[in-house]
Amino acid sequence: MLYVLNQKSHFTKQEILKYRQKLSPLPLKENVIFAPSMCFLPFFEDFSLCAQDVSPFPTGAYTGEEAAKSLASLGVSYGIVGHSERRTYFNENNELLEQKMAQIFNAGMTPILCIGESLEDYQQGNTKEVLQKQLQVLFSFPQEMWKKAIIAYEPIWAIGTGKVIDVKLLEEITLFIKQQTGSRVLYGGSIQLTKIHDFQKIPTLDGFLIGGMSLQVDDVIQLIQNA
Ligand code: PGA
Prior knowledge:
11 helices; TIM Barrel; globular; eight-stranded parallel beta barrel; 227 residues; alpha/beta; 8 strands
């Protein structure tokens, strides 16, 4: 199982160093992947690393962007593409996400493509249709690349809300994604330690994308110990 810890834009230097210090005695677990703020990535260089976003451009004159190749040179192996917060606040569309994914593949990193439906789509029964459209980003690449990617299924209505998806439904959706892509599939949305335990039994689920819980260092320590 993979556990990707998305700390989003949280923490100051002082706070992250305190957090980091508490993790220090723990052994490295390659399947526990840290995605801190870009500026704090070097503080986690002894862990597996993921970037929360990447530039759609290569290295060059693109002020403020973080190129996949630069990130890879820091030891970053994974890059998140299309998190719902980026789709909402930065208007990211499939065309842009394809460019980002191409940069990630070119840098030899693994893309984590986030997909998920809104509450409205969920209530209207449109989930699979929405996911199908979002998966077009992956389908624009040759089929042999699909299994190199990771798909993170994150229903928008479950992100940061405390609402967690029903086990049966998650099983159905992860199977739907896996049958089409052959990719590894993660779930994200208000994950806590107890839910990890319940969901781990789903055969088509390969891990979790974890937001809020990743800020609680004591929970993260427990996660690493059991990972
Ligand atoms: P959450 O965030 O665990 O706080 O719901 C998940 C995510 O945004 O990736």
